[in-house]
């Protein structure tokens, strides 16, 4: 017999289905209980008969054999409850078959008149127990055929009577009903078992998935009894399942006196259905964030606690906070440096206009202040780059003029060092192109400064040509050159090369500026022969006629001043009005006052924002108005932003009749500072240091 055929017979005869094995175990337990009950009832009845008559009458003289049979059978049922399934089936089959044979013998020899009732009893025993030994239909059919044969054909001495046919028909009808019932019952049992298996598999898969989840997971019921904990949580708390919940009462939440366990209890009491954070805590030099939410687990209300390693996030936040602090410090330093430079330039402009004999020397001083201003701009730009606040401000400009201005600023240093500065500006470059000319000047100045720094003799060449698609700008020198191994680190300020570095802040900022302009700096260098830095600027010279006025654009350090909005002419008709200068620096107020005094323009001075408001109210009560307020932003008592906002609010509320034009005059030039000026009611922005002619143009426009 082949293996497949043996397997078929074995699977059909012994039933290896898991769901049927589970059902058979329940059948064996039920059979054992019923047999115990029958034995006890039989013993009780026989005991009553023995008490009334005699032991021989009750047991027909075979009481020892009966007690031995009962004892053996009951012991087998008790000790075989954990036996293999095949043995259990043999025990049930043997006992039921013995009972069936006993009932048949009883119906033939002792109670022929009640054989029908006894047959029905035998049928019930067969249907309840023997047919539950096997899952498939064929073994059960054989059992039924055997049962019918025993009861209908076993007594061959008698002829088949009509009553026997009735019994046969009754048995057949009972078997038919049982077959229908068993089919539906077994189908339902199988489906139920398959559903349970699917749920168990899903639960197992979920448990395996959660066990490898990177975040710690803990599930407790409302009595804080552990229901589930994954591997990550055990590693985090370094505890076993018995101590996990207890560990939570010793873990404190930052900036709070509560522990994690107290937060969980509060979440359970409040029945919070949405996930929320309990806070963060420190565990073994790491930072973890705790979350909690009420869920249902194993058909009972529970609480899910999650813990996530946020050490890297905390480090990033600390770095970001430090970057913001550094940026604020750089902005403050930049403001403090620009303020005296502004005063120096204003005084130089005033002296140059009075005495032409020393104008050349004063021009050199002004060149130095402009170069210093470029260096301050590099520092400020770098602070904006590292905080992602850097932006390009494009406008129409004369690029040829800007390049020549860079050459003029650097020519003094080149002449002093004995170098020949050559400027080649292509005449085909458009007179006006759209770009950030101030940032372009900073790039050129950085390249020219480096060229002078590393060139001892020879030439420095600034070249700009129109290639048709772009303007190619290059700075070439005959200096010491750059080694090949340093070229890749040239545009990184933090390259690790601190001694004799050929890079630095200027080149690093310049490269980032060019990337914002969709360009890139390229370098060619030979040690001992010199270097050549080149970049291309896309040409954009035409602007649609219906484009927004430049007065609506964001100002920058290149555009020293322009209007953000225009004021109605009714604000500048009163000839009695004057200029108000609000600045806490006496030096700046003196310089601005001298410029206005030289043009016979009346003005008032205050040292803080509060005094500026008082002065505006004072003039308004007298029937006059300030046409223009030059407002410094950073002042004691009350800063310029707050003062401008209050003056604008006073006009909106009707407390003053006329609103003066408020112009910011400060060294701050970041995007946030500019927006803050707009929000406070200022309509123009002047970046320090500011040339005298720019200040006069603003005053003449509004005064």
Automatic annotation (TrEMBL):
<dbReference type="InterPro" id="IPR003594">
    <property type="entry name" value="HATPase_dom"/>
</dbReference>
<dbReference type="InterPro" id="IPR003661">
    <property type="entry name" value="HisK_dim/P_dom"/>
</dbReference>
<keyword id="KW-0472">Membrane</keyword>
<keyword id="KW-0812">Transmembrane</keyword>
<dbReference type="InterPro" id="IPR011006">
    <property type="entry name" value="CheY-like_superfamily"/>
</dbReference>
<feature type="domain" description="Response regulatory">
    <location>
        <begin position="578"/>
        <end position="703"/>
    </location>
</feature>
<dbReference type="Pfam" id="PF00072">
    <property type="entry name" value="Response_reg"/>
</dbReference>
<dbReference type="Pfam" id="PF00512">
    <property type="entry name" value="HisKA"/>
</dbReference>
<feature type="transmembrane region" description="Helical">
    <location>
        <begin position="113"/>
        <end position="131"/>
    </location>
</feature>
<feature type="modified residue" description="4-aspartylphosphate">
    <location>
        <position position="632"/>
    </location>
</feature>
<keyword id="KW-1133">Transmembrane helix</keyword>
<protein>
    <recommendedName>
        <fullName>Histidine kinase</fullName>
    </recommendedName>
</protein>
<dbReference type="InterPro" id="IPR036097">
    <property type="entry name" value="HisK_dim/P_sf"/>
</dbReference>
<dbReference type="InterPro" id="IPR001789">
    <property type="entry name" value="Sig_transdc_resp-reg_receiver"/>
</dbReference>
<feature type="transmembrane region" description="Helical">
    <location>
        <begin position="63"/>
        <end position="80"/>
    </location>
</feature>
<dbReference type="InterPro" id="IPR005467">
    <property type="entry name" value="His_kinase_dom"/>
</dbReference>
<feature type="transmembrane region" description="Helical">
    <location>
        <begin position="34"/>
        <end position="51"/>
    </location>
</feature>
<dbReference type="GO" id="GO:0000155">
    <property type="term" value="F:phosphorelay sensor kinase activity"/>
</dbReference>
<dbReference type="InterPro" id="IPR004358">
    <property type="entry name" value="Sig_transdc_His_kin-like_C"/>
</dbReference>
<dbReference type="Pfam" id="PF02518">
    <property type="entry name" value="HATPase_c"/>
</dbReference>
<keyword id="KW-0597">Phosphoprotein</keyword>
<dbReference type="InterPro" id="IPR050956">
    <property type="entry name" value="2C_system_His_kinase"/>
</dbReference>
<feature type="domain" description="Histidine kinase">
    <location>
        <begin position="332"/>
        <end position="541"/>
    </location>
</feature>
<dbReference type="InterPro" id="IPR036890">
    <property type="entry name" value="HATPase_C_sf"/>
</dbReference>
């Amino acid at each position: 017999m082949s293996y497949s055929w043996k397997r078929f017979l074995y699977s059909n005869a012994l039933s290896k289905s898991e769901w049927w094995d589970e059902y058979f175990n329940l059948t064996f337990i039920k059979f054992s209980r019923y047999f115990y009950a029958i034995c006890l009832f039989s013993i009780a009845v026989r005991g009553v008969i023995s008490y009334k008559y005699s032991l021989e009458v009750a047991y027909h003289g075979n009481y020892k054999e009966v007690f031995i049979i009962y004892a053996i059978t009951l012991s087998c049922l008790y000790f075989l409850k954990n036996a293999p399934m095949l043995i259990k089936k043999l025990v049930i089959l043997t006992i039921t078959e013995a009972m069936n044979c006993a009932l048949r013998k009883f119906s033939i020899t002792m109670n022929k008149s009640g054989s029908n009732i006894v047959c029905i009893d035998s049928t019930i025993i067969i249907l309840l127990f023997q047919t539950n030994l096997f899952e498939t239909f064929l073994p059960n059919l054989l059992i039924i055929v055997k049962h019918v044969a025993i009861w209908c054909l076993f007594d061959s001495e008698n002829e088949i009577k009509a009553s026997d046919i009735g019994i046969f028909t009754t048995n057949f009808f009972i078997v038919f009903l049982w077959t229908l019932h068993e089919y539906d019952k077994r189908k339902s049992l199988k489906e139920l078992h398959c559903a349970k298996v699917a749920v168990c598999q899903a639960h197992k898969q979920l448990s395996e998935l959660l066990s490898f989840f990177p975040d710690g997971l803990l599930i407790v019921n409302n009595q804080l009894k552990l229901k589930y904990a994954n591997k990550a949580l055990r590693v985090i708390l370094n505890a076993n399942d018995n101590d996990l919940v207890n560990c939570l009462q010793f873990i404190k939440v930052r900036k709070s006196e509560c522990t994690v366990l107290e937060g969980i209890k509060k979440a359970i009491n409040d029945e919070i259905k949405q996930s929320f954070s309990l806070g963060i805590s420190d565990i073994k030099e790491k930072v973890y964030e705790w979350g909690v939410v009420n869920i249902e687990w194993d058909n009972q209300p529970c609480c899910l606690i999650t813990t996530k390693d946020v050490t890297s996030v905390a480090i990033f936040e600390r770095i970001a906070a430090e970057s913001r602090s550094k940026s604020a410090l750089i902005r403050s330093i930049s403001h403090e440096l620009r303020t005296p430079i502004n005063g120096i330039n204003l005084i130089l402009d005033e002296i140059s206009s009075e005495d032409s004999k020393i104008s050349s020397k004063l021009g050199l001083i002004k060149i130095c202040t402009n170069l210093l201003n470029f260096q301050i701009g590099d520092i400020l730009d770098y602070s904006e780059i590292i905080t992602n606040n850097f932006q390009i401000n494009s406008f129409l400009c004369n690029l040829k003029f800007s390049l020549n201005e860079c050459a003029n600023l650097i020519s003094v240093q080149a002449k002093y060092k004995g170098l020949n500065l050559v400027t080649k500006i292509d005449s085909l470059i458009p007179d006006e192109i759209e770009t950030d000319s101030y940032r372009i000047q900073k790039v050129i100045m950085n390249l020219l400064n480096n060229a002078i720094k590393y060139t001892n003799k020879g030439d420095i060449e600034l070249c700009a040509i129109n290639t048709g698609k772009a303007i190619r700008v290059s700075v070439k020198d005959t200096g010491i050159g750059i080694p090949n191994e340093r070229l890749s680190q040239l545009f990184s300020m933090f390259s690790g090369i601190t001694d004799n570095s050929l890079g630095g802040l200027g080149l690093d900022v310049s490269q980032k500026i060019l990337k914002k302009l969709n360009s890139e700096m390229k370098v060619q260098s030979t040690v001992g022969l010199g270097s050549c830095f080149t970049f291309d600027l896309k040409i954009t010279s035409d602007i649609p006629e219906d484009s927004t006025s430049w007065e609506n654009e964001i100002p920058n350090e290149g555009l020293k001043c322009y209007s953000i909005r225009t004021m109605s002419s009714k604000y500048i008709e009163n000839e009695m009005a004057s200029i108000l200068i609000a600045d806490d620096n006496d030096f700046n107020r003196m310089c601005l006052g001298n410029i206005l005094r030289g043009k016979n323009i009346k003005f008032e001075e205050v040292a803080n924002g509060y005094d500026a408001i008082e002065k505006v109210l004072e003039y308004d009560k007298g029937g006059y108005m300030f046409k223009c307020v030059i407002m410094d932003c950073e002042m004691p008592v009350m800063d310029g932003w707050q003062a401008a906002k209050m003056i604008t609010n006073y006009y909106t509320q009707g407390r003053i009749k006329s609103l003066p034009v408020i112009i910011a005059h400060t060294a701050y030039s970041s995007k946030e500072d500019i927006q803050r000026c707009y929000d406070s009611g200022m309509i123009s922005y002047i970046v320090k240091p500011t040339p005298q002619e720019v200040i006069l143009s603003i005053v003449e426009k509004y005064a």
